[in-house]
Design goal:
Blueprint lengths: L2 E14 L3 E8 L4 E6 L18 E7 L5 E10 L2 H5 L2 H16 L7 H16 L4 H15 L20 E3 L4 E3 L13 H12 L2 H6 L2 H19 L19
Parallel strand pairs: 3-5
Antiparallel strand pairs: 1-2, 1-4, 2-3, 4-5, 6-7
Length: about 250
């Protein structure tokens, strides 16, 4: 049908002409969508603020030849202001939506949409450390895309664990026979934290020591960027600023 409706997360926008924008969205049922929002840069626009990055909206679109056209937009989750007010939340959110944008259209699923919405909601509310929310999102979205890291048996030969060498290029943990010479070993607590990030065990994640969190973050970033085949530029700006009240 020429006109359709869906829920969508706004990933990024680009200016078009004097008053329009091209909006890239991850929708619940139609995957990634690129559409023109006409007149949204005018102060008189009724829905321009609903089509900003990190916002979740119920959108009605008209199917075009190359780009669809946004006809209506109703806010479902106004997360942008609360995220943008905190640098650590903002940089983590940018890395999340950049990752969602990098994944191909064929890999966009309702589960990926819900995972991103949940992550942005948690960031806007300050429920957990922003870097931990990002790390959990990256591990889980990679798993949904078919690139789940092996955190038990050897990723190369399937030898039963436990193993203590993590090699992003080989798919996760590898046994001593498969590990390249000089590969660093990771601590058991760091490995346990990776498993908790994958499972969303927030009581364990929130209680982790800063050194364990930093070590796990480095491994997650290396793994995600290797499988996306190019760097996530926003990760360069992500910080580990503690949440307010954190000790």
């Amino acid at each position: 049908m020429p006109t359709y409706r869906d829920e969508a997360v706004i990933l990024r926008t680009h200016k078009l002409g004097e008053a329009d924008r091209i909006v890239t969205m991850l929708s619940r049922r139609h995957g990634k969508v690129r559409a023109v929002a006409k007149g949204v840069r005018r102060t008189s626009s009724k829905f321009g603020s609903r089509l900003e990055p990190f916002m979740v909206a119920d959108v009605q679109l008209y199917q075009g030849r190359s780009l669809d056209i946004v006809q209506q937009a109703e806010s479902l989750g106004a997360y942008g202001a609360d995220i943008a007010a905190h640098y650590d939340r903002f940089t983590s959110a940018n890395a999340m939506v950049e990752t969602a944008d990098r994944l191909s259209d064929a890999e966009a699923t309702p589960e990926q949409y819900l995972l991103l919405v949940g992550g942005l909601r948690a960031l806007s509310r300050g429920e957990h450390a922003p870097r931990s929310i990002l790390d959990s999102y990256l591990l889980r979205v990679m798993a949904l895309s078919g690139w789940a890291p092996s955190l038990g048996d050897c990723a190369r030969c399937a030898a039963a664990g436990p193993h203590s060498t993590f090699v992003a290029q080989l798919g996760g943990l590898v046994c001593p026979d498969c590990a390249p010479a000089g590969s660093p070993r990771i601590a058991e607590k760091t490995l346990a934290l990776l498993r908790s990030l994958m499972a969303g065990e927030w009581d364990v994640i929130d209680a982790a020591a800063p050194a364990e969190t930093a070590a796990a973050s480095g491994l997650v970033a290396a793994y995600a960027q290797w499988h996306l085949e190019r760097g996530i530029r926003s990760l360069a700006h992500v910080t580990d600023i503690p949440r307010e009240g954190a000790r």
